[in-house]
Amino acid sequence: MKTNLIKTFALVAALVGSSFAFAESWNVNDSVVIKKDVKHYLTGEEPSEWVYGKTFSIQQIGSKRFENGILLREIISWVGPEDITRPDGSSASAEPAGRGNAKRQQNAGPDKNADKKYDFGDWKVGDTIMIKRSTTHYLTGEEPSKWVYDRKHTIQTLGSKRFPEGVLVAGIISWVGPNDIYRPSDQPARESKIETKPAKPADQGKKEEVKPVDQGKKEEVKPADQGKKEEVKPADQGKKEEVKPADQGKKQEAKPADEGKKTDKQQVAQRAVRMQPHHRFSIGVRGGVASLMHKAPVMNNWKAGFDALLDLQYAYYFGAKEGKKVNHGIITGLSFGYAQSPIKNGVSYDETKNITDESGSYSVDYSIYASEVKSRDGELQIEVPLMYSLQTEKGFFFNVGPKFMMPVWTRYNQTISADHNISAKFTDLGVTVPNEVVTGVIGAGDVKKSGSWGANQAKISLLLAAELGWEWELKNGHALGLGVYGSYAPLNTYKPQNTNLDLVTVKADGKGPASVTVNSATDSYTTGMNYFDAGLKLIYHFQFPAKK
After folding, report:
1. How far apart are CA 159 and CA 121, in angstroms?
2. SS3 breakdown of the chain: % helix, strand, coil, rounded to 5?
3. Closest C-alpha to 76, from 280, 297, 240, 299
4. What integer pLDDT is reported at residue 265 of this predicted model?
């Protein structure tokens, strides 16, 4: 009896002694390697293949739950003292045989939530949730830090081998029960803000709060069926687990101070190149108000329409003189676009003419009247610029000079009002006949008519044009410009087909029905053109330094 009592006392002393030896053998920040024969962490999860053979550092020694456990910083996982060695293969004092396995067996068993029954019917991966303040422990036993409450999280996984009815919360990588969470828009009526209990003694509390949340995170992020997610590299895991999600994003996105300075230097260099001799190829779009501004005695009220053009340009800049911040260049290129404009309110038509047959046997006075004639003319045009360009170091630009514009396709759409008539007065007979076939009528096809105006006519115009605006240098060395433009054509080569052409012509020979022809108002009355346009321009510049 006495012998057995002595043996028992010796065994207890050995176990206690080994515990103190363990605590004294390892230190925080020691470098260690996980043994290849370790199949489970103290929490019961299986390590991924990549953790073997890598060097980790000790973050914490012991906790409320794992008295002799070792928390590895990079993977935030708990191992036993017999599971690790120093990088050179040596080990600290060994833990008594079977102690680590007994701890694993204990952790792998049922936890305090094992008797709870949950229903995943209302939850799915990706849902946004919040953790109830009444939740004082994760399923792994750790106490949540205060910052996890009143913050939105995302469900990463539902269920695992160890926690079949657990919910893995992304961001903090910790397991909770479905009853511990709620949707932000559906806060439980009974939910009350319960403050978490302060940590136990100071030294113990600090160890626990090194991020006990993080302990739960990494341990639980890698159940066996979540192998792929566990393959995240250790460095990334460490950053995510040790920083609060809100702060983490800011830190990752913040640019180093020297990077900003480098960008400033690049911009200065780009402006310097911009002031040097260089070539520039540009593509731009512009659009605004426009008018063909036909010159005619009875058509002097053409109002503004619109234009839209594509500019393809080339420019050469000669380089700023020493000490100057202004560069000069010449621009040419080719532009394609469309412009149109209508008569403002239409014009009335009232004309009297006398027609005598060839034999002179009779004479007819025709009266032709229309209360309103409307027309809308348009053209597809090309422009060739030859302009002087000025650009400053900071981005202002000003271009001015001539452009040659030529319509390559024209179209008019003309309408005669319903209030129109043609009457014929036979002077010899003293009879007036209105709107009869024999005297001539305006047909339905002539009331609304379209065609090409100025056909077979040279219509080249000389435009005086100006542009100004601002350009922004891009990181790739090119530039983006935004400005306004305007042009006016004081000279053109357009001439009407026949200055004596009437809008409505009637032919009659007295032997049959008279024929009526409705012509284009533009061709009937126009004596010239004074095209103008104005609007906004957006352009992208490809800049290349000239070879010296």
Report:
1. 13
2. 20, 40, 40
3. 240
4. 44
Of 187, 167, 189, nearest to 177 (Cα)? Answer: 167
Cβ atoms of residues 232 and 218 within 8 Å = no
Q: What are phi and psi of 503, to 5 degrees?
A: -65, -40
Could you list the beta-strand ranges (E) of 358-456: 363-392, 396-416, 420-426, 431-434, 448-451
Backbone angles phi, psi at 537, to 5 degrees: -135, 135
Pairing of strands 420-426, 396-416: unpaired
Q: How far is CA 374 from CA 29, 289, 398, in A?
A: 90, 20, 39
Tokens matching residue 62: 């012991």
Please list, in sequence order, all residues whose beta carbon lies within 8 angstroms of the beta carbon of residue 98, skipping any fewer than 6 positions away: none
Rounded-to-integer distance, Cα 385 and Cα 404, Å: 6
Asked whether 457 and 463 are in contact (CB, 8 A), the reply is: no
| pTM (predicted TM-score) | 0.49
Quick one: tokens of 69? 């456990």
Q: Which amino acid appears at position 168 of this protein?
A: L
Instruction: Please say whether the beta carbons of 112 and 143 come within 8 A.
Output: no
For 297, 352, 437, 449, the CA distances from 423, given in Å and listed in that order, are 25, 10, 11, 22
CA dist., res. 61 & res. 71, Å (int): 6
Amino acid identity for residue 75 in this structure? I
> Which residues have a Cβ under 8 Å from the Cβ of 258 and sit 6 or more positions away?
none
Q: Which pLDDT score, from 0 to 100, does residue 334 have?
A: 97
In sequence order, what are the residues at sequence separation of 6 or more whose Cβ sits closer than 8 angstroms to the Cβ of residue 328?
317, 318, 388, 389, 390
Task: List Cβ neighbours of 414 (8 Å cut-off, separation of 6 or more).
Answer: 373, 374, 375, 376, 448, 449, 450, 518, 520, 521
> Can you tell me the distance from the alpha carbon of 224 to that of 44, in angstroms, rounded to the nearest whole number?
10
Per DSSP, the residues of 440-496 read ----HHHHEEEE-TTTT----EEEEEEEEEEEEE-TTS-EEEEEEEEEEEEEE----
User: Which tokens go with 327?
Assistant: 């560069």
Collapsing DSSP states into helix, strand and coil, what is residue 240?
A: helix
Q: Tell me which amino acid residue 288 is.
A: G
Q: What φ, ψ does residue 294 adopt, rounded to 5°?
A: -60, 135
Q: Which residues of the chain have pLDDT under 70?
A: 1-24, 64, 92-119, 121, 187-273, 297-301, 344-347, 356-362, 496-500, 509-512, 548
Cα 167 to Cα 123: distance, rounded to the nearest angstrom:
9
Residue 224: phi and psi, rounded to 5, are -55, -35
In three-state secondary structure terms, 225 is helix
Name 271's Cβ contacts closer than 8 Å, sequence gap at least 6.
393, 394, 473
Rounded (10°) CA dihedral 108, 109, 112, 116: 110
Rounded Cα–Cα distance for residues 70 and 77 (Å): 8
Q: Quick: pLDDT tens for 243-255.
A: 344 444 444 443 4
Number of C-alpha atoms within 13 angstroms, CB side, residue 485?
30
Contact 528, 295 (CB under 8 A): yes
